[in-house]
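hiii, so i know i said id send this last week but things got crazy w the move. better late than never?? heres the sequnce for the chain we talked about at the cafe, plus the structure i predicted for it. fair warning i was half asleep when i ran it
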Amino acid sequence: TFNSAPIFLLSLPLLALFLVPITGPEAFISFEGDLIFIMFLFTLIAVTVFIAGWSSVNRFGTVGGVRAAFQMLGYEIPM
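okay and structure toks below
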């Protein structure tokens, strides 16, 4: 999971990009509740940062991953 975490971290914002209308009124992928799905994808980014830190098998990496995930979630919740 440690080696696949950067790929997963890059794929989540790219997937969210397909849900945002850029050139016209319709997005590439459009459905009801797509804004909620985008917020879910951004929450998964914080979870992926935690998993990457935890799977590094280093106590400093684990603490850094937990700290970064808490910071990301602490910023997202007030939004």
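btw The longest helix spans residues 34-54. thought thatd interest u
miss u guys!!
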